[in-house]
Amino acid sequence: MVFNLRAFSFDESDEEDPTPTKSFSLKELRRATDNFSSKNIVRSIWRGNVYKGCLADGSLVAVHRASSVDSFRKKSFESEVQVGSTVSTHPNVLCLRGFCRTKKELLLVYPFMINNSLSYNLTKRPDRFARPLDWTTRKRIALGAARGLAHLHNQGGSSFAVIMNENNAEEGTIEWPMWSADSGSDSQSYHRYEDVYVNTTLCGTRGFVAPEFFFTGKCTVKNDVFAYGILLLELMSGTGILLLIALAENEDLSLEEWIGVLKNKNKLGRVIDPNLQGNYVEEEAERLVGFALLCSHVDPSIRPEMSEVVRMLESQFLQRDPSTSTRSSWSQSEGDSTLYYSFPPSPSPFLGIAP
Questions:
Q1: Which domains, from first to last, does the chain contain?
Q2: Distance CA 229, CA 197 (A)
Q3: CA distances, 186 to each of 180, 183, 294 (Å)
Q4: For 128-186, how does the pLDDT look when each residue is reduced to its tens digit (9 = 90+)?
Q5: pTM: predicted TM-score of the whole model, two decimal places
Q6: How far is Cα 2 from Cα 17, in angstroms, rounded to an integer?
């Protein structure tokens, strides 16, 4: 996740001030996780584990523990703590609660998502066929996630955050090869895009990494917009993005082309999660798929800003003029519906790339 710290101003935002991050002792976190017991591991990847924990005040937390301390993890850890210390609270952003650093340990503490991840609820939950996420909940998740990302881009922070300041940001051309089905072509064509970017180590979940970032390692806020578009496709289809891409490639089409063909044949329902059993609004589904394709367009200049996405979704779902403020609530219960699908959607970079 990327944001521009230079765009941040407390004077221009009525969000609450950042909650001070706490420096936990190793003893506190050992006690909270039952000495990092294997029974409390909720996610395990090659760079480290995430543990479920219970603090002394009874609150549940997720403790991200690096498997070792090296220069890469140290740098990522320091960036995440710095970001976590500057972000103001938002109902759709999972804010850092605290950290612990010793000579042999790097640990980050986040609130525990009691409803698990979106991916789990869409594809892995044992009763997902009997109790799929209903259409209204999916719309709330789409809007809540968009609001969370817009908040991050406007003023800061998430576990993938790279602070874009005068020291590490550059402005220039991002160039990457253009895919072509004509393998016999003698000349290579390129996409070119002008933006502010940072050069960073590639982190992200397969299928969610924008092509320009994948080829160049140059990261911009438009990479996040791409990932949001992919999230929308998974949310609507109930299917992992890699499987959707495979279905398109089976017909020698790109994902965008495949969905376009289905739309033209009035078969867009093939993209919508069959577990919904038709309990959705076709017009809304068509617009959401259109938003998803716009956000995940191969050309970053065509992708909208996240603030624009929020306005489009609010106009669609809240019957509101898109020029009005994006800060009104869906309902009094919106936070309850979206909080546990808050960002960050993937492990922090100091833990590694999600499988």
A1: 2-116 (3.30.200.20), 162-341 (1.10.510)
A2: 20
A3: 11, 8, 31
A4: 888 899 999 999 999 999 999 898 888 664 434 444 444 567 788 888 887 654 544 55
A5: 0.80
A6: 20
